[in-house]
Amino acid sequence: MESGKVNFKGMKDALIIMLDEEQDFDELMQELAKKLEASVKFLKGVNYPVRVKGRELSNEQFVLVAAKIKEITGLDVSIEDGKSSTLTKEKTKKPENTQLKSMFYGIDEGMTKFHRGTLRSGQLVKFHGNVVIIGDANPGSEIVASGNIVVLGTVRGILHAGATGNKNAVAVAFNLYPTQLRIADIITRPPEEKFSKAQLPEIAYIKDDNIYIEYYLPNK
Question: What was the pLDDT predicted at 182?
């Protein structure tokens, strides 16, 4: 495999990880893991943001890259606004519903905290920005974010998106069964049982000062 496809660059206020835009993504992930493991002692001493640049990534690819960095180094990855941002909106047809069209507007803006692993009872993840949980959120756990919350698993704990009053924030999970769901200052508790379950992620959002939960159909 060619060298130089993944490079680290230390700045005064951030650690930049440059990804080659031409290399196959799977090969890029292998080299990223190799270089992270070789530099883990140095990286564990980093106390400023880590940013990924050099290549446009889909939402799914960015989650994979950020999760790998978190897994090996314990560091969270931030997202930069503007041309240097590596998190791009998926180039798929958006839902026709006007509310759904704007649901993910701004989800790639600002800082994002990634947590890998299941949240257990008593655990709290709180962050001024977006939060992505790669795992489940068990009963008794709590996630609080000033931005959006995305859980790549089942939620049975407490969610509070848009905690600073952002009514445009959303909460997304593969299965939404929270004991309490709050977006901005609006609180709801979804029904304990659902009669059917499609193999689709669910999204909670505010419309007309009410919280709605429905399946997310990106190609609808």
Answer: 95
